[in-house]
């Protein structure tokens, strides 16, 4: 649970290329402003981005819900605007393709 202090640091997050991460560079430079991370991910969530052993993003298997462990709005997340646009589009898309 306790990791390195990574406030205001850019790091490379590897992702699955699915949902909101489709067509984005892989790995994706992202902005980190945290030093905590989860160790156990519930079955209902899909880990769709990670850095080493740190979960960087999840999405729900059935609902259009997701979470990021980085800041897509930061200038350090180089494709953050595209990621946010794609996340909104994914969240608003018809169900059945979570």
Automatic annotation (TrEMBL):
Statement: the UniProt record of this protein carries the keyword Repeat: no
GO cellular component: cytosol
Molecular function terms, GO-annotated: anthranilate phosphoribosyltransferase activity; anthranilate synthase activity
EC number: 4.1.3.27
Domain of life per record: Bacteria
Catalytic reaction list: chorismate + L-glutamine = anthranilate + pyruvate + L-glutamate + H(+)
One BP annotation, GO: L-tryptophan biosynthetic process
Annotated PANTHER family: BIFUNCTIONAL PROTEIN TRPGD, MULTIFUNCTIONAL TRYPTOPHAN BIOSYNTHESIS PROTEIN-RELATED
Residues covered by the Glutamine amidotransferase domain: 6-87
The entry's keywords: Glutamine amidotransferase, Lyase, Transferase
InterPro entries named in the record: Anth_synth/Amidotransfase, Class_I_gatase-like, GATASE, TrpG/PapA_dom
Protein name: anthranilate synthase
Gene: trpD_2
